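User: Reviewer 2 asked us to show a designed sequence for the structure in our supplementary figure. I'm pasting the structure tokens here. Could you produce the per-position amino acids so we can include them in the response letter?
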């Protein structure tokens, strides 16, 4: 499928797509698992990848046999991840060039399952925070991904029609959210070897096809 030439807006995920936050999340998640007497490996990572933070808390509460402790586990996780993010975070390959290529020409936003307190740190630390007209965090909507509300909210706040827009995602949960909004979905899988669908799948934002598209895509209005 060809990439769209004319778009109403472009909405990006953040973690694992624009910014290499996964090491910080992995350290934080492993620490919480260890504190509760559990190992944390690729299987556990895949189970939790892309979930909203509240869903992650409920998953951990069930996994640790700590019913009702989801909110406390979320707070612990956010504290640990925040400490790691403050040590430094980098944009992923091609992310900064892509954002710079479309900023100012196409309405762009971020729709992230991360809570505001971590989303801002990630974007600021990676040097991406000044480019987006809108950013929507997971704790600012009622339903996180895979529900489409984050994407619908971002497109709405840009004044853009989702079905004429493009979303960029890296996880199956995010792709489900973006597709449910009606947007064309560019998928850049963050977990190699994991099959994730989308309207256009590419290994990296640095791919020449994505770079070329970013330079020629035009706004609908």
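Assistant: Here is a per-position design you can include in the supplement:
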């Amino acid at each position: 499928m060809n990439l769209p030439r004319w778009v109403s807006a472009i909405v990006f995920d953040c973690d694992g797509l624009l910014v290499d936050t996964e090491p910080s999340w992995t350290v934080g998640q492993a620490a919480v698992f260890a504190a509760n007497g559990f190992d944390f490996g690729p299987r556990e990572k895949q189970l939790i990848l892309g979930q909203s933070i509240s869903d992650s808390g409920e998953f951990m509460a069930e996994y640790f046999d700590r019913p009702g402790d989801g909110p406390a586990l979320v707070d612990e996780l956010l504290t640990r991840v925040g400490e790691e993010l403050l040590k430094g975070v980098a944009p992923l390959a091609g992310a900064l060039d892509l954002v710079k290529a479309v900023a100012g020409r196409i309405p762009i936003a971020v729709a992230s399952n991360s809570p505001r307190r971590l989303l801002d740190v990630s974007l600021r630390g990676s040097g991406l925070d000044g480019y987006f007209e809108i950013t929507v965090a997971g704790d600012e909507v009622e339903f996180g991904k895979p529900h489409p509300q984050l994407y619908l909210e971002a497109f709405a706040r840009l004044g853009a029609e989702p079905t004429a827009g493009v979303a960029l995602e890296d996880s199956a949960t995010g792709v489900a959210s973006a597709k449910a909004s009606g947007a064309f979905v560019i998928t850049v899988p963050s977990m190699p070897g994991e099959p994730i669908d989308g309207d256009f799948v590419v290994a990296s934002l640095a791919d020449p096809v994505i770079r070329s598209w970013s330079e020629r895509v035009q706004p609908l209005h």
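For the response letter, you might also mention the following. The mean pLDDT is 93. Residues 170 and 189 are 4 Å apart (CA to CA).
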